[in-house]
Fold this sequence. Notes:
This protein is an alpha+beta fold. It has 13 helices and 29 strands. It is rod-shaped and about 145 Å long.
Amino acid sequence: MNKVLKIILIVLSSIVALFILISLLVSPIAKGYVNKHGEDLIGRKINVDKLKVNVYTGTVKIYDLAVYEDDKVSEFLSFDTLDVSVKLRKLITKEVYVRHLILTDLDVNVLQNGDKFNFTSIIDHFAPDPDKEEDTTSSNWAMGFYNIRLSHWKVYYADLQKGSEWKLKDVNIEVPGVYFSGEEQTEAGVTLALADGGTLNTALKYTMETNDFDVDLKLDQFAISNVKAYLADFMNVGSVKGTLAADIHAKGNLSQIMNMVINGGLTLSGADIKDNQGADVLACSNLGVVVNKIMLADNLFDIASVTVDDLSSRFDLYNNGSNFSRLFDVKKPAEEVVAEDVIEDQFRDSSATANESKPMKLNIGQFRLNNASFVYGDHTLPDPFTFPVTKIRAEADNLSLSGDNALKLFAMLPHGGHAIVDWKGSLDDIKRHQDLRLNIKNVQLQDLSPYMVKYLAQPFTNGVFSFTSMNSINHSELKGDNHIDIYKPEVGKRRKDVDSALHIPLKAALYVLKDKDDKVKIDLPISGNIDNPEFSYMKLVWKTLGNLLVKVATSPARGIADALGLSNNDLEFLPFDATQRGFTSEQYYVMDQLAQVAGYDSNVVITMEQQIASSENDSTMNLAEGRNMMVRRHMEEIGVPARQLKVTTSSQRGKKTGYAISSEIKVEE
Length: 669
């Protein structure tokens, strides 16, 4: 062997030996360096159990790594295995080519305290030096990551201030490839198992050059109790239960994110929300929404269907508000309120321009409400009022913010009653046009007694109530026709402990209004301008009804004449000549009508007060008592008992001579 060949062999052997030595030493050296200089590398203590580097294949494997919190005792994250393989020869052409990246059994704890996280110090460690000018030159390196597999991750998140916790377990992510230099399309899939139950699966397609993306998201059995801490920002919520499922598809471009198109559906099951006192707020066995298309840039919301099953809620009114006003009465520090106002102002300013020329376009193809229930309670009355409405079902098709819509509703009321509602109108401009027909049948009057006590100081003790109401609004002007039909109404004694809004003899009015079949039928026309700040539909109803009852109770003869179909125009004054010795045909007719009124009910008392004109002489006054006796005798002859008739003479002179007729009902209130 010549000398040159020996030298070459020695050099080659030395190089091989050096590479072997490096390959043997690089792993322990790298491990020792990482364990010793972790804080220099990332600002945190690091501990690695085993680290293997293969300089020939470009492979690095790290086993049992732990990164600690700032206290150097608690673990921030740990994992079982990290396996990365890189094509070294690609580095020569300025390309980072990762053959595969495998990370298994990652366990990470993320803690938030206000605007600070437990990894904030790591971010700060890599923050650029403010004294150095930032390098903005573009890099000509290409990067590609292939066969990324993240297996069996566990992620724990806690918001320390809100007391919120999120736990993800068995998170699995598979990404065939991520490209940062070419026109190829990136595909990624994510699978997450949630600690409180449920899974999340996503599939992403993304093209780097065009920024186009296509995302599918499937969520199953997600526990909505996780959002309780965030609801607490604006609701005094006590507990939140239920699960959410979703199947959403979004397609668009990251450069114009608002132009993306969203479709799919979501289902909320077993929802149950209670306030911080444990009272029911809202519950729903199923809420399903199917979306045809949502385009935020066009403010377009095209909903195929909304289905709500077994919805239940209640509204309780108190002197200082309602259960819902208490629910949303969340006290916040002044500085927090100011900050939120600033953010809202900024949001309004930034979004106003984008949306001012594009009003919301909402369409719901089909709306169905099945087996809902609602309880209305009024605790502002002298006696508490509770009224449950059950088996509510509603349906509407092609609901839209533009044009007229139609909805039908049916509900069961206590004691076998029911209500039917037919509505037609516009949603975008409520004041422009509304038509509402309400038909209520078979309501027990005793159920409505608390309101009767408040307004009239007397409770209902018996009776069945039916109500038909037809109302229309045209350009803020309301016109309503209400028909009340009551069978066998009875009222109790007047409550002395209640200062009622209206003071009328209710029993007397009902005596007058009831027909021979014990029925009361009342028509109540209502009108008003809904823009008036004093407008209240119920106040108008009670005012109109009260005026009617007062009129009937204080002048029952006219009301009875109406009920009997008599002409009541002559039942207020009966002309009588001062020297008259008998009765005219007209006078006979009027007295006969008065007898029919008296015969309507034995509690009716008719008063005929003789008026004498001031122009008459004193001799006419002397004949007054004789005329009274003649009238009494005739009224008794045609069947009016003496106890139901009063015939007197006025002590004062009037404008004309005759009998002023009045009536009253003598019943115990």
